[in-house]
Amino acid sequence: METVSVPVQFTPNAHKELTRLMSEPGFDTSKFLRIGVKGGGCSGLSYVLGFDDKQESDVVYELDGLTFIMNQSHGLYLMGMQIDWEDGLNARGFSFTNPNASKTCGCGTSFSV
């Protein structure tokens, strides 16, 4: 059995919010939680966090009961990243702490390496 290192971590708040979203009535259980990057944003790359179909180039990971997919090539950019959920008065949404980012934008959703 091959052991694959999980590239990202979820804080307890992020885990709770993702679990809540996936348990909502009408959630499409055929979709996977996708974590990744795409070109764009003010710093060059933007984070992807959403629900999607599994592609041939995806790796399936399981962490603390959450299953997610990631394009195999995205691990280079995201290894060691922590995903958090903030639910405060000044900030609401997922945030990303990425040790691989050499520069991030003010909104925290794009970065460069």
Question: How would you describe what is shown here?
Answer:
The structure is a single chain. The mean pLDDT is 84. This protein has one domain: HesB-like domain (Hypothetical Protein Aq_1857, Chain: A, Sandwich), CATH 2.60.300.12. It is mainly beta. The strands form 2 sheets. The chain has a 6-stranded mixed sheet. Strands 1-6-7 form a 3-stranded mixed sheet. The chain has helices spanning 12-22, 75-78, and strands spanning 8-10, 32-39, 45-52, 58-63, 66-71, 81-87, 92-97, 103-104, 110-112. 19% of the residues are buried. This is Iron-sulfur cluster assembly accessory protein.
Helix content: 10-25%
Report the portion of residues in β strands: 35-45%
Q: How many angstroms does the end-to-end distance come to?
A: 33 Å
Indicate the mean pLDDT: 84
Which class best fits the helix and strand makeup?
A: mainly beta
CATH architecture: Sandwich
SSE series: EHEEEEHEEEE
CATH topology: Hypothetical Protein Aq_1857, Chain: A
Give start-end ranges of low-pLDDT stretches: none
For the report, how would you describe the main beta sheet? 6 strands, mixed
Q: CATH top level?
A: Mainly Beta
Please list the strands of the largest sheet in the order they lie side by side: 4-5-2-3-9-8
Question: How many structural domains are formed by the residues?
Answer: 1
Q: Which term fits the overall shape? A: globular
InterPro entries: ATAP (IPR016092), ATAP_core_dom (IPR000361), FeS_cluster_insertion_CS (IPR017870), HesB-like_dom_sf (IPR035903), IscA_plant_cyanobact (IPR031108)
Protein name: Iron-sulfur cluster assembly accessory protein
Organism: Paraflavitalea soli
GO molecular function, one term: 2 iron, 2 sulfur cluster binding
